[in-house]
């Protein structure tokens, strides 16, 4: 008995996307390598780290979308992660002193947005809350670091801590649903 395995034909849009992705990958790798070489040659600030992270952000958000966690909350959290790392790199490598004011503002805006998305469509978005929980945990850790003096304590950090605590209270209020989702996520009884 002969078994024939047939796969569906790729449509023109998918073929075009895959070809353009291959071309863009090599362009990004070439641009990143060129920036690193030029940065090392001119011996200045490490601006190439900002360029390479920006290229990685564009690649990750546009040309390499998630296969499993492709939902609105996950995409918001992923974009916020990339932006916060980029801002921290700019602060460390190029212009120091302002990122601990801007990053908490971006984080609490993301917390508000993800909470609204969760509350607007609670039943269908409930399975997408794990990235939101990681965002809350990171926000609370940043707030604790500011309170104990490791980083600067300013009004954006206070607002971030307040919103993160409020979202944590929301998790506690709906704890049965979230615990059920955690059990599904980690396959526990």
Question: Could you give the topology of this structure?
Answer:
Layout: H1 12-42, H2 47-63, H3 72-93, H4 99-120, H5 122-125, H6 130-147, H7 155-173, H8 175-186
If you had to describe this structure to a student in words, what would you say it looks like?
- This protein has helices at residues 12-42, 47-63, 72-93, 99-120, 122-125, 130-147, 155-173, 175-186.
- The chain starts with 11 loop residues before the first helix and ends with a helix.
- The chain is flat.
- The protein is mainly α.
- The mean pLDDT is 88.
- It folds into 2 domains: 1-65; 67-189, no CATH class.
- Helices cover 77% and strands 0% of the residues.
Low-pLDDT runs of 5+ residues are: none
Determine Rg (CA atoms, Å). 21 Å
What is the makeup of the main sheet?
none
Q: How would you classify the quaternary structure?
A: single chain
Mean pLDDT over all positions? 88
Class based on secondary structure composition and strand pairing: mainly alpha
Give me the count of strands.
Answer: 0
Q: How many angstroms separate the termini?
A: 44 Å
Morphology call: flat
Order of helices and strands: HHHHHHHH
In what range is the share of β-strand residues? under 5%
- Determine the number of helices (DSSP H or I, runs of at least 4 residues): 8
- Estimated helix fraction: over 70%
Compute the number of structural domains: 2
